[in-house]
């Protein structure tokens, strides 16, 4: 039986070696219960030595740490407003829509008008509040569903196993997704669990829209949300680059 200090060192070494580890594998390796492993992971995450994920842990990377929601809200604000307005124009009465918790998607509710019998689902506390305000102001009619899950207080969203499980019970007409960065083939997020939430939103939707301003091109988010082959439309502030071959003049919506 390993002592706690020994377990912590062994967990760190395995994370460094493999990049990602699972609770069940660590429990078997260390000959302890999964609950003991989870407590050890909490300690390591508190010390900023690893980052916990659903069912395990990955390496901690201080370089790619995501800025707070409030800080991100101010960046490229004028461009984000225009992108959100374009996205809002794609939402029609009677649709079932899902919106993730980005600072661009977070601006969509203020541009919704004259929409009825619409159901909007989100994992964002801010977006849910803004959508409720839109209903109170009679700009939209319908239902707002706030997903359950564990909170990320810096980003004002919920995420994790419960969030993912609930999302998989829906079929959406449209998904509106943000990202931390994108390259010519894929889009990425700073947080692994938030990336998974957005990924499921895309998978459960008939049509998916990625909202991303030009500052996100080749930025440094670590966790892939999706390949662009799974994204139907891109809404951005600049002309489609030649190397992003998946999109054409109809699916690239330049503001």
From TrEMBL:
Coiled coil feature spans: none
Pfam families listed in its UniProt record: DeoRC, HTH_DeoR
Molecular function via GO: DNA binding; DNA-binding transcription factor activity
Residue ranges annotated for the HTH deoR-type domain, each copy included: 4-59
UniProt entry keywords in alphabetical sequence: DNA-binding, Transcription, Transcription regulation
Cross-referenced InterPro entries: Carb_Metab_HTH_regulators, DeoR-like_C, DeoR_HTH, NagB/RpiA_transferase-like, Tscrpt_reg_HTH_DeoR_CS, WH_DNA-bd_sf
Top-level division of the source organism's lineage: Bacteria
Protein's name in the database: DeoR/GlpR transcriptional regulator
Naturally occurring in which organism (per UniProt): Staphylococcus capitis
